[in-house]
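Note to self: keep these together.
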Amino acid sequence: MADPAAASGAQFVLKWAQERPQAVAMSEGAVQLTYLDLARQTAAAVEALEAAGVRAGMVVGVECRDKMLRMVLSLACEALGAVHVAFTADDLRPPSRTARRCQAFLVESPGEELAAIGRVIAIDAAFRGGLDSAATPDLARLAACRDADEPMRIARTSGTTGAKKHILKTRRMLNAAIDSYEAAMRPVAGEFTYLCLYDSAINGVYTDIVRALKFANPVRFASTFREVVEACRTARCYGFLLTRDAERLAAICRDAAVNLDMYYADITGSGVSPALEALLKAHITPWIVNVYSSNETSTISYRVQGAGDVYTVPPGVEVKIVDDAWRPLAPGQVGQICVRSDLVTRSYLWDEALTERHFRDGWFLMSDLGRMPEPGKLLVIGRTDDMLNVGGEKIAPYPIEQRVKAVAGVSDAVLLAVRNQAAVGVLCVVIEPEPGQDVPALARRVAEAVNRGTAFQVRVEASFPRTATGKVRRDVLQARAEADVHARQAELTPS
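Structure:
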């Protein structure tokens, strides 16, 4: 590993297989893989893929529900120099536009349509058995040195603001992201366990897992909150939690009078209210971190709870605030957030128009508004495409949403401009209440917090629709609210 920026997860695995072969690398339930086990399985997978015709530079789709096996296959692709992209079975029946860009597939559910696109390698019992029983796989295959800027992985955005966008990740970006995590969170060199509730198909989770492998931290995959509690009883854990899961886990621990005392928790998905912060600190960890990031940029800034709404920009990341023409604004002014670092991708795959709109000279133009109250500090105001047009009045939703989220009993909140049948925007505050709330009373408290002279509605959703990474599906809430408005207007319209 002469060039640290070119290091790969497979090389980290090989290092610890040589230095700490019996140390646990990954576990799920009763199944454990030592670093030597993981190295052997990954090397055997490299040989199996090569025998099936997979070569360096190919784009390989991976569809696998087994979290440990997905990581083995991803690490094998990297060692071979193939570019891997994660799929679900739904992406492959029929093949999505992304799947049609692949030259090979590693799948649990092979179909005839895939065979017409590229090589299909079934992850069946025989394939899995071959990884376990390979007598002497060549571990040296994991040490292959490649260029730091060689393509390694294709990540996809969640699609909450439109069609999913595709982003090419290189080894340099992966290692820069790991370094940024060390600055934004807490260093993990030492006796810590990475507690993973999610699949490595999520880009940030993949980075977390490779970071754990770099520092010889065991990766513990958990499927239930009970497993999380048990893991924290036997090890000092750290991990990433979606806001909704952090709240549920903290409530379970509160009811059981348990404090997990995690090393730290990276809470992502939405803001952390003062009430939730107190609950997390009492039962999960006193070290709560929110990271402001995107798939295109990885870490942009971070904040530790108690620091207010101001985020800190880590070393190696440049942030500036610009207007619509990319012109820098004066300090303190509100504008679009623009980011440059080794973590930033250089384009969107297969979309020249969107690339031209968002990428320029190494900078990426976010769709978020913000301001920098001082150098190295960032305040995120909201999304440019979230600005609401309510009967001709332009309203920034973020400040109002923050006030509503601070209301006791509100789990989450979204502000919408709902179009009525006359296509006129009506302000609508959609809330997700905490369990056991008196909803009418909660709606009245929310109305007081909104505190606007213009008319608005308060709408209650028992549970917000979300993406796999916990982002609220505003498009779904918008459609539901408008359908409800139209239905009520139809009831009032004379036949």
